[in-house]
Amino acid sequence: MLEYGRVVAAERRAFHATHARDGAVWNFPIGRIGRVSLRILLREGFEGATIALTDRFFYPDTVDRTKLTFALSLDREGRLGEQWILKKGRWYTLRLEWQVEQKPPRDRWPGECQVFVDDQPALTLPQGHRAKAGLCYLRLHSTAPQIDSAGFLVEYVAADIED
Predict the structure, then answer these.
(1) Strand runs labelled E in the chain
(2) Are the C-beta atoms of residues 97 and 34 closer than 8 Å to each other?
(3) What pLDDT does residue 16 have?
(4) For residue 51, which of 95, 85, 84 has the smallest C-alpha distance?
(5) 3-state class percentages of the chain: helix first, strand second, coil last, to nearest 5
(6) Structure confidence at residue 106 (pLDDT)
(7) Contact by Cβ (8 Å): 98, 110
(8) Longest dimension (CA), the chain
(9) Is there a contact between 86 and 73 (Cβ–Cβ < 8 Å)?
């Protein structure tokens, strides 16, 4: 908020996922190579979430992991892969850097997605589904089995596409 040319206060606005199957979808320019960054906070009592990248729109409450190109799961403890646990009540910047392929050469899709937490390498996600001309949707989804009174907050998202 500006008051006579100076910043007085800035209200933080965030997406707050709390209900079972709560979700949000964000569209960005399509790309076979790119990155998405988001700032996320897991609240005390958080019950789980999926952060996914896809090549097409699905309704936010649709939960079909077989159609997700890359899916990053956060369990109720904040576990991200085998070595990272996101602490509750702390903001983190997650960055997902991907390169996708349109056709699998044999038995699996060759693309991958590197996940970074506060600029530190965290894990690599395999490409789980097609990506036709590239990726263009970020999906945020609560995996809570019922109402999650805590949920998670997302302060911002940003995308940078190379190809």
Answers:
(1) 2-3, 6-7, 15-17, 23-31, 33-42, 49-54, 70-74, 79-80, 84-85, 91-99, 112-117, 120-126, 135-142, 152-161
(2) yes
(3) 67
(4) 95
(5) 0, 50, 50
(6) 63
(7) no
(8) 64
(9) no
- Cα–Cα distance, 103 to 126 (Å, whole number): 14
Selected from 3.40.20.10, 2.60.40.2230, 2.60.120.200, 2.40.30.10, the CATH number assigned to the domain covering 11-161 reads 2.60.120.200
Q: What is the pLDDT of residue 71?
A: 93
Nearest CA to 50 out of 34, 67, 33 is that of 67
Which pLDDT score is estimated for 8?
33
In the block, residue with structure tokens 């190109």: 69
CA-based nearest residue to 152, from 72, 60, 40: 40
**Which pair of tokens denotes residue 55?**
């090549």
Report domain extents, the chain.
11-161
Q: For each successive 10 residues of the chain (163 residues), what is the average pLDDT?
A: 34 58 85 94 91 83 74 94 92 96 65 95 90 89 83 90 87
* Contacting residues for 111 by C-beta, under 8 A, at least 6 apart: 69, 98, 99, 100, 101, 126, 127, 131
